[in-house]
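hey m, so remember when u said the tokens were messed up on ur end? i reran from scratch. heres the input so u can diff it against urs
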Amino acid sequence: MARESKKEVIIDGAVGIFAELGYYKTTTARVAKAAGVTQPYVFHFFKNKEELFLAVIDRAMKRLHDTFDGVDAPADQLSETMGDAFMRILETHRDETLMVMQAYVIAEPEIRVHVRRNFAFIHETLTAKYEKAGLPPGEAGAAASQFIGMGLLITLSQVLDLPGIVCFDE
């Protein structure tokens, strides 16, 4: 198996373990087992668990960014269209998406800074998307913030199995 694809297999295994156990309870030994490799092989690609976690977050954030960046809709339909895209990602990459939307609670300084940068980049992308659709800059930033807030609420409802706390206007 090619080097890059083995690295992706390790990241794939890590997603499920991090999603199930959280950052602090996840071990590289469990990730290795889930990926079907040895623990030293995990360290061949990642110097430690933190670096592995950041790789998982980067892949997930890139998926979100690319999905939102690819949405094209008028201002009055943009949130709904991107919301539909978010729900599809949540269905197809649930563990990955839930990890991203919960990553901000990890207290490790390097992770906190990294996640902050990623969320800021997503916010900037969404703001630019709303501006391109015709919203003035202040409104575009507010719409981007509301969109991210709704994503966090949807994630909360998924994690806690409380679908009733998210209400959509019909």
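this time it looks ok to me. The two ends are 49 Å apart (CA to CA). if urs says something different then somethings off w ur setup not the seq
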